């Protein structure tokens, strides 16, 4: 179902793009027009450009990142977005904060069900999902690649975690932030809270 949601969301985002004048919303919609991983993809581009690992970008890097990701944004608009995110006016933006703000807003009900799923997976309760946590929740033996001998149990778990992990920094651990980011993308394609909650309950047997 996720592929269908993705397509619907992309079509919806393209439609809304022609209507909105808010620069941040325009950037968000351009990302979502690429599917639920669109915002994550922009994060990856910024990550690559952050040569000194400062996790911040100056205006020049910001514009280059947008261009590299083929975002249709003129210089004035980029300046306006940059100003909004450069809260203390020091000429740089924190890109974790930037990506969180770019994330489509979600209702309290949606955030709660996402956290329920996270807590179910986070067996050890330390706020990070690891392969160890998954052993108790997720049965790898039903996975086709495990059954035909291609993958070990650990490889099945790792591939599962990689879905939620930050694309530029796959470390086999999934934080609440990464889990939320992933589902914010999915959530953007689902209109009603009720439907979103039913989908999450079915997916995670909550």
UniProtKB/TrEMBL annotation:
CDD domains: EFh. One of its GO terms (molecular function) is calcium ion binding. InterPro entries: Ca-bind, EF-hand-dom_pair, EF_Hand_1_Ca_BS, EF_hand_dom. GO terms for cellular component: organelle. It comes from the Eukaryota. The keyword Acyltransferase does not apply. Residues 37-72, 73-108, 109-144 form the EF-hand domain. SUPFAM superfamilies: EF-hand. This is Calcyphosin-like. Pfam families: EF-hand_7. The keyword Iron-sulfur does not apply. Keywords: Calcium, Metal-binding, Repeat.
């Amino acid at each position: 179902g996720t592929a269908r949601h993705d397509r619907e969301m992309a079509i919806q985002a393209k439609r809304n793009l022609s209507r909105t004048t808010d620069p941040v919303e325009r950037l968000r919609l351009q990302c979502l027009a690429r599917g639920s991983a669109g915002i994550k993809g922009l994060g990856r581009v910024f990550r690559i450009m952050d040569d000194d690992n400062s996790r911040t970008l100056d205006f020049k890097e910001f514009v280059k990142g947008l261009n590299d990701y083929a975002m249709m944004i003129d210089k004035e608009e980029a300046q306006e977005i940059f100003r909004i995110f450069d809260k203390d006016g020091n000429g740089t933006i924190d890109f974790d904060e930037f990506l969180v703000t770019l994330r489509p807003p979600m209702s309290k009900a949606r955030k709660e069900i996402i956290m329920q799923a996270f807590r179910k997976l986070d067996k050890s309760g330390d706020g990070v999902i690891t392969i160890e946590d998954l052993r108790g929740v997720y049965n790898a033996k039903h996975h086709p690649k495990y059954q035909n001998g291609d993958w070990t149990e650990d490889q099945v778990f790792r591939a599962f975690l990689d879905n939620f992990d930050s694309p530029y920094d796959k470390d086999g651990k999934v934080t609440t932030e990464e889990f939320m980011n992933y589902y914010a993308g999915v959530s953007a394609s689902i209109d009603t809270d009720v439907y979103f909650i039913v989908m999450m309950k079915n997916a995670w047997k909550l």
